[in-house]
Design goal:
Elements (H helix, E strand, L loop, with lengths): L4 E6 L4 E6 L18 E4 L10 H12 L19 H14 L3 H5 L25
Antiparallel strand pairs: 1-2, 1-3
């Protein structure tokens, strides 16, 4: 029986590759086009089209924040923003509340919506320390 495969991404080339899971003795994977290191993104990853630069920019923000696309017990990685506007909303929320970026980026719904300039009219109240 063949081992499963997982996805790796090259951001400069906007390319995704399915390769075997990394083993104990495996070396770092490099892009066959540009020889830059590939980023392990997980087995539940679906790559955007190469010409969709906005989606690749949103993906770049997610990957640099440490968000990956691994399957969970329920069959998928959960919510991941696909557009730059969704990423901007979640980044503004994280800045206003102090929540870590990686955690704010995977929120499906935000408790508040920032205004058009990324500011909040009413960010959620932080609980006071007792």
């Amino acid at each position: 029986m063949a081992h499963g495969k997982t996805s790796y991404v090259c951001l400069p080339c906007r390319a995704s590759y399915k390769q075997p899971y990394p083993g104990y003795h495996d070396h770092d994977r490099v892009c066959p086009r540009c020889a830059e290191p590939l980023i392990h993104v997980g087995s539940a990853f679906a790559a955007p089209k190469r010409r969709d630069t906005a989606a690749w920019r949103a993906l770049s923000v997610l990957l640099h924040a440490g968000v990956r696309f691994h399957k969970s017990c329920c069959g998928g990685p959960g919510y991941r923003p696909r557009t730059l506007s969704e990423v901007r909303e979640r980044m503004a929320y994280a800045r206003a509340t102090g929540e870590p970026f990686a955690q704010a980026l995977v929120r499906r719904d935000l408790p508040w919506q920032p205004d058009s300039k990324g500011r909040s009219a009413a960010p959620p109240k932080r609980p006071l320390l007792s």
